[in-house]
Each structure stands twice: as C-alpha cells, then as structure tokens.
Design a protein that fits this description.
about 575 residues; alpha/beta; ABC transporter transmembrane region fold; Rossmann fold; 2 domains; 6-stranded mixed sheet; 4-stranded antiparallel sheet; 20 helices; elongated; binds adenosine-5'-triphosphate
Length: about 575
C-alpha cells in the first residue's frame, strides 16, 4: 500500500456523501456572501431617500432568511463531513488493530507498545481532524473568498479597488511555504516525545510492583518526569511558531482593510464609488478575515495530519515477517511431527539458537524437552507455532512442510500453554474459554479440575464469573499458571504444548496435574518443556537440549543409565528435594 492510500480508499468509497457535503457548504458560502450585497443596496436606497417602512421590513426579513439558510446549509454540510470523519476514525482504528494482530513478534520487539498506541490514538485523530475540519474549512475558505469576490464585482466595486485591497493576500503562499515544513518538523518531534512518554508511563505502571519493592519510586518518577519535560519544551516550540504564523494571516487581512479605507474612502468622496458599494466592500473584507484565518488553521492541521497519515500508512504497509503461503492448506489435526536438520538463528543474532536438530514425534507420544536455560527449548516451540519461521523443509507436520499450512489453522489446532500465560481483565470463565467463548460451562469446569484450579475458583465470591485484573481479584503466580493451563486443556487438541507452564506450581499439585494429563491425553500428542525432571519423567521420549543441539534422548530409565546431562540434572534436583525435606 503506498502513501496516502488509506485515506484515498476511504474518500473514494464515500465520494457521494463528501460531494453532497461540499455542495452544501458551497451553497452556504454563496448565501453568506449575499449579506453585504443586500446591505449595500439598503445603504444606497437609504441615502437616496427611496426607502419606505415596508422596504425596511422586507430587507430585514431578507437578511433573516439569508442568515437562517446559511446556518442550516452550513450545519448540514459540517455534520455530514464530521460524521464521515468519525467513521474514518473507526475504520482506520479497526484496520490498524487488524494489522497489529497480523504483525509478528519481531515488529513488536522493535517498536514498543507506546509508539503503537500513539498510532491508534493520536495519529488517527489528527488524520480525522484533517479530513473533517480540513474539508469543511477549505471548502468554506475557498468558496467564501470566491463568492465574496464575485459579489463585490456584482456590487459595482471597481476591479482595481478589489485587486489593491486583496493585494496583501498574495503574501499568504510565501508564508505557507516558509512556515509549513517548520511546523511539520516541530509537530513530528512533539508526536515522538508523546509516544516516548506513553511508553515510559506504560513501563512504569507495568513495573510498579518492582519499583515499590526496591523502593525506587523516586527514580521511576524522575525517569517519567524527564519524558514529560521533553514534551512541554517541544510543544512550546511548536506553539510559538504556529502562533506567529496564525497571527500573521489576520494581520494581512487588516492591512487590506486599511488600504480599502484609504482608496475606497477617497473614491466615495470624489463620487466614483457609491456609499453602498463602499459599505459592501468593508463588510466583504471583514468576512474575508474569517476564511483567511481558516486557511491558516487548515495548513497547520494538514501539516500535522500529513505526518500522521504517513506514519499510519507506513504501518499499514508493513509486511508481517511470518505470513501465509499463496494457497495455504488447513491443518485439521496434528498426527506426526518431523524435524530434519533444523538450524535456526534469530534475526539479528550471530549464533544459531538451534543446530541441526533431527527428531520424529509420533502421534499420541508424550515428549519431554529439558535443558539448561537458553538451550533452545522455547525456540523449538516458537518455531512449531511459527511465531518465527523455521527454514523451509526443516519442519514437517503430517508429512508436509509446516509453511504449507495456514497460520490460523496451525495456531488454532495446537493448544499452547506458555510459562507466563497472559490473563485478561475479564472473568475467569472468559479467560479459560479464550479460544471458544461459547464453550459449555461443563467443559470449562472440567478444564479447571484437570488444571487443579477448580477448588480455588469456587471459593471466590463469583466463582467462574469472578473478574480478574485491575478491577477484580489478583491471582497468585501458581493460580495464574493453572488458569492458563485450563485454557489450553479445554481445547482438547491433537497437540498440546506445555512450555514450562507449571514452574510456579508446587510439586504436589504438579504431580496431580501430570497424572490427570496422562489419563486424558491418551492417544494424543503432548510436548512438555520443563526445567524439572519430575514434569517429564513419565514421557514416552525425553530429549535433552544443550546449546541448541540434541545432546541426549531416550526414556527416563534409559537416560539415567547413560549417566549424562540428564542423569546429572536428576541427581541435582533429587539432592535439592532431599535438602528441602531435611530442613
Ligand atoms: N527473540 C530473540 N532474539 C534473539 N535471540 C533470542 C531470542 N529469544 C531467545 N534467544 C536466544 O536463543 C537462545 C535460546 O533461547 P530459548 O528461549 O529457546 O531458551 P530456553 O531453553 O527456552 O531457555 P529458558 O529455559 O530460560 O526458557 C538463547 O541464547 C537466547 O538468548
């Protein structure tokens, strides 16, 4: 998508409504420009002593009618444009949110949440303002100016007098060329510092517990304060420049009024201009002051929204790192998984996280994956979910390259329970039924029982309808993990992946969960990543990763007999348990 396409698409789709709105505003401008003409006529007839009482009433009613129609037409035009603007805002935010879900983790790692939020909040608002107020004010300004010039000519004001009076207006384009890019640059800096502040605020709020426990609130406050100071300074710079620019425009209007007074007044005195035409001229020049001011506003607005539109369009044009192939197949169930010479290096990293991994996982098997921290366990899982893309041909599901399946079907078929399963600020029920909001209550309760969180939940006052998060209850680390585990279990998927998902659960509860997993997962494939031998010892096959390589594989007894890394890990953990029991 190239620059400005987002807006172009929208305007193209709603061109009829926009045309009607612009026509309404043009009609209101022509209507408004009739006022000085009427008053000019009135003055001339008054001066000539031709006015009767009835004429005065007729003129008053005419002025009233012009004012009422002007207001009605303008209000209708403005309402239509504003409504379209609000719809644009909704449409764009919706598109942006769609884009956010499409983009990969790599993009988020680079961008930061504050920046992305500022796209949705500030940038979209600036563009909306430009297309709503921009269209109303530009149409208003241009057509009011044109109508006034035409009416001035109709009123019998000599063209030379109009040219002389309107002369100072010719300076406007020069002012715009000078101020425009400068305002745009300063506005960009303000936008960037607002994004930095949002990011800092978000980080401080997310890390508030840590700040408190380390008693470093002052440091946190100072760090946030520094980002706010930056904004004020940059905003003031922007305000100074745009105020100077906006004040110069009406100043030029005033100069043109002075010129018209000098030359027009002289012409009335020597009889070459009627008093009515002179009155009309001064009134027209007063009216013109408004559109001039609007031109200033529109330019400022366009500068601001131009930068915003550029940013939004750039984001919309981002191509996700991981995406579907041309004609992706639907993955219905995972039968077997095959890794052949899988080597993977994270983008920007020099060392591979996985090296020449060969592995076959049969349907119904439980595979335990252990290894020291940083050995590549989570990387392997991320590749299976295509959070990062594995090299072509290195990873097959049901005999087909993983890239041939649609991302949606791959991720919805696999049940994945990460270590830090995020819980949303909604009810426990909605959190568990995350992948299927219509899941029956019995299934949700069953999942909670298997994850051994059921007893905790029913002790909450609203049981499964208890709200979590900011306005609800706070779960302990272990309760959070088990709720997230229940979310994975109710999918009853052909492939369940537990990525260190019981690390915060005590040993007794873990044992219970594993026992229920063994009975409910019969015939289905389960991958258990863990630091604890106790979590994988019953697996059909266990692999040990060491610096991204497959160091050992076998069953628990086989690996113990090998006296290798696994056996050493087992010994260490047994000793740890023994020490804990002795204390
Ligand atoms: N997004 C990333 N970008 C670059 N390198 C990464 C990224 N994620 C992980 N790594 C690196 O890849 C290697 C393997 O990491 P991985 O998270 O797979 O290890 P792990 O075995 O799951 O560790 P842990 O048990 O601590 O979760 C590590 O050296 C890590 O620093």
């Amino acid at each position: 998508m190239n620059d400005k396409e987002l807006l172009k698409d929208y305007v193209k789709k709603h061109w009829a409504a926009y045309t009607i709105a612009v026509l309404l505003i043009i009609a209101s401008n022509i209507d408004q420009a009739l006022l000085p003409l009427l008053l000019g006529h009135f003055t001339d007839r008054l001066q000539q002593g031709l006015l009767t009482m009835q004429d005065v009433i007729r003129y008053s009613l005419l002025v009233l009618a012009v004012a009422v129609t002007y207001n009605a037409l303008f209000a209708l035009g403005q309402y239509t444009v504003m409504k379209l603007g609000r719809r644009f805002e909704f449409f764009t935010r919706d598109k942006l949110f769609g884009k956010f879900s499409e983009l990969g983790v790599q993009y988020y790692a680079k961008q930061g949440n504050g920046k992305l939020l500022s796209y949705v909040l500030n940038d979209v608002t600036y563009v909306r303002e430009a297309i709503s107020n921009g269209i109303t004010q530009t149409t208003n300004a241009v057509f009011l100016l044109l109508s006034c010039i035409v009416m001035m000519l109709i009123s019998g004001i000599p063209p030379l007098l109009i040219c002389v009076s309107a002369g100072p207006l010719l300076l406007i384009p020069f002012l715009v060329v000078y101020f425009g890019p400068r305002i745009r640059e300063r506005s960009r800096r303000v936008q960037e510092s607002i994004a930095a502040m949002t990011e800092a605020a978000e980080e401080q709020l997310n890390g508030i517990r840590i700040s408190k426990t380390f008693a470093v609130e002052e440091i946190a406050r100072a760090r946030y304060g520094a980002t706010v100071d930056g904004i004020t300074e940059k905003q003031l710079k922007l305000v100074r420049l745009s105020s100077l620019f906006q004040s110069l425009l009406p100043f030029l209007g005033s100069i043109s009024l002075v010129i018209s007074l000098l030359s027009g007044g002289f012409m009335v005195m020597n009889g070459s201009l009627t008093l009515g035409s002179f009155v009309a001229l001064t009134l027209y020049l007063r009216i013109i002051g408004g559109p001039l001011q609007q031109i200033g506003n529109v330019i400022n607005m366009m500068q601001r929204s131009g930068a915003s539109l550029e940013r939004v369009n750039r984001l919309m044009a981002e191509v996700p790192d991981v995406r579907d192939s041309e004609k992706p197949a639907r993955l219905e169930a995972v039968h077997d998984i095959m890794l052949s010479g899988l080597t993977f290096t994270y983008p920007g990293s020099s060392l591979p996280a996985l090296k020449n991994l060969n592995l076959s996982i049969r349907e119904g098997q439980t595979l335990g994956i252990v290894g020291k921290t940083g050995s590549g366990k989570s990387t392997l899982i991320h590749l299976l979910l295509r959070i990062y893309d594995p090299p072509e041909g290195s990873m097959c599901i049901n005999g087909r390259d993983i890239h041939t399946y649609s991302l949606d079907s791959l991720r919805s078929t696999i049940a994945y329970v990460p270590q830090d399963g995020f819980l949303f600020s909604t009810t426990i029920r909605d959190n568990i039924a995350f992948s299927d909001r219509a899941a029956p209550m019995l299934l949700i309760e069953d999942g909670a029982r298997q994850a051994m969180i059921y007893d905790n939940i029913i002790r909450f006052p609203d049981r499964f309808d208890t709200r979590l998060g900011e306005r609800g209850v706070t779960l302990s680390g272990g309760q959070r993990q088990r709720t997230s585990l229940a979310r994975g279990l109710i999918k009853n998927s052909s492939l369940l992946i537990l990525d260190d998902s019981m690390s915060a659960v005590d040993a007794v509860t873990e044992k219970g969960i594993l026992a229920s997993l063994r009975s409910m997962r019969k015939g289905k494939t389960t991958l258990i990543v863990s630091h604890r031998i106790s979590a994988v010892m019953h697996a059909d096959q266990i692999i040990v990763l060491e610096e991204g390589q497959l160091a050992e594989s076998g069953t628990h007894p086989e690996l113990l007999a090998r006296q290798g890394i696994y056996a050493a890990m087992h010994k260490l953990q047994e000793e740890g348990l023994q020490d804990a029991a002795d204390q």
